[in-house]
Amino acid sequence: MNRKSLERKISIGVGTLQEALDRFESAWKSAERGTRIAPEHRLTFSSLPRLLRELSPARWMLIETLRAGGRMTVYALAKRLNRNYKNVHTDVARLAELGLIERTKDRKVHVPWDVIAAELRLAA
């Protein structure tokens, strides 16, 4: 198995509820036919402004810093980012809710993804 097939990837984009339901239905039908499909990790926002609000430049820097530094406490992350602990804690909580970072049992946080891919389609 090559390295690329072992990468953990999440796709981020803008889409509708109907598009999400269509993907679910397609996966369901594939499973009914016995077709094995690779798991897909996806985070979809209802609009570009919402995506940009959730993944602000400060939050993206947090993700990059955490990925580069490995598992660490929120306090250590705040120090590394030179940001207020409370603000970093708030951002960590939201990014964990979104599934972009994870908490460990020893009260550390980390980025479980090797790739976070964003796709923004232009309207026809």
Describe what this molecule looks like in 3D.
With 124 residues, this protein is an alpha/beta fold. The chain has one domain: Orthogonal Bundle (Arc Repressor Mutant, subunit A). 50% of the residues lie in helices and 15% in strands. The protein has 6 helices and 5 strands; from the N terminus they run H-E-H-E-H-H-H-H-E-E-E. The protein has helices at 3-6, 17-32, 48-54, 57-69, 74-81, 85-98, and strands spanning 9-14, 42-45, 102-103, 109-110, 115-119. It has a 3-stranded parallel beta sheet. A hairpin with a 5-residue loop joins strand 3 and strand 4 (109-110). The longest helix has 16 residues, at 17-32. It is globular and about 50 Å long. The termini are far apart. The mean pLDDT is 90.
List keywords for this structure.
124 residues, alpha/beta, Arc Repressor Mutant, subunit A, three-stranded parallel sheet, two-stranded antiparallel ribbon, globular
Which of globular, elongated, flat, extended, rod-shaped describes the shape?
A: globular
Per the CATH scheme, the topology name is Arc Repressor Mutant, subunit A
Helix and strand element order = HEHEHHHHEEE
Q: Which CATH class?
A: Mainly Alpha
CATH architecture: Orthogonal Bundle
Low-pLDDT sequence parts = none
Estimate the strand proportion.
15-25%
Number of helices: 6
End-to-end Cα distance, whole Å, is 39 Å
Which superfamily, in CATH terms, is the homologous superfamily? Winged helix-like DNA-binding domain superfamily/Winged helix DNA-binding domain
The main sheet orders its strands as: 2-1-5
Summarize the main sheet: 3 strands, parallel
Number of strands: 5
Mean pLDDT: 90
How many domains is the backbone divided into? 1
| Structural class by secondary-structure content | alpha/beta
In percent, how helical is the residue content? 40-55%
Cα gyration radius (Å)? 17 Å
